[in-house]
Amino acid sequence: MGDQEGVDNSSIALERLRALVNRAFSGREGRLPTERALADQFGISRRSVRRALEVLEAEGRVWRKQGSGTYAGPRPEPVATEIGRIAADTDFMEVMEARLRIEPQLAQLAALRAKPAAVDRMRDINQRLRESGDSDERELWDSALHRQIARSAGNRVLLTLFDIVDSVRQNQAWQTIRARARSDAAMRAYVDQHEAIVEAIGKRDPVAAGIGMREHLMTLNDNLIRQTSLESLSDAS
Fold first, then answer.
1. What residues make up the domain containing 169?
2. Do 125 and 50 share a structural domain?
3. DSSP code, position 3
4. C-alpha span between 184 and 43 (Å, rounded)
5. The domain that contains 184 carries what CATH number?
6. Once rounded to an integer, what is the mean pLDDT over residues 67-73?
7. Total structural domains in the chain?
């Protein structure tokens, strides 16, 4: 079917494409059929299909990738599309290097800017972490505490960097590694370190908050190195 074959009716094309998108198209990565296939399916010209797709793209209902096709849903954020690749290509040492350069500064800024209500939330989150009973729950509250500190720093650029690193560390492979490094004794030490960081923030002491965060991350880093070294020895034996 050529561009001019079929009926020119963009309104019908738009109506049928809306229905297709609303059914939560479940193809590969949400990919829609080609313009030619849609034109054949609807009995409408490709020109009408193309015009309807332009409307849906303007509405944010679909997005197009040159050389790949048209996809249902909003266009992914460029940063978000890179998270999976970064998680697959990096190792925990790179993640910890990034955290050590970002989070102590965030803790310092939080000590200068955090409101009392935010400090209270930090204390509550850390208490929930102390009471957590399994690795999934610990992961949840640990991430929540570090993000609350990052938010309280009041710097959107640094918060964005934190969110990128945090998204990488939420990868299932990373969670598995960290879970192995969280013995009961290690968790008690982490929670105590968290408490010292939060209290330094509450006392408006940026030096103590930054030092406390760095010491906490170094403890985690050492435990991760120890755990991965033990696993390497086990695999080699």
1. 80-236
2. no
3. T
4. 65
5. 1.20.120.530
6. 83
7. 2
